[in-house]
Amino acid sequence: MINKNELFYKLDAVINYLQNNGGYDYKIYNRLCPGMGEPDSNIVEYANDVKDLITKLLEQDKLDPIEEEDLPF
Question: Residue 69 pairs with which residues in a beta bridge?
């Protein structure tokens, strides 16, 4: 089973890579309907939002444990 520490270590590695390799310049929309103005976010913010969401789901016990055989890698 993959543990929470390993998951967050991997997320942090991705976030650090994005921060150091132009992730702030990779602009994206925070809305479901792009095309209405300029992008208002970046990929680093998205990655941090994913980490925050996973943290909240784990705290609320709403995320099932991940079995290693279920992982695609």
Answer: none
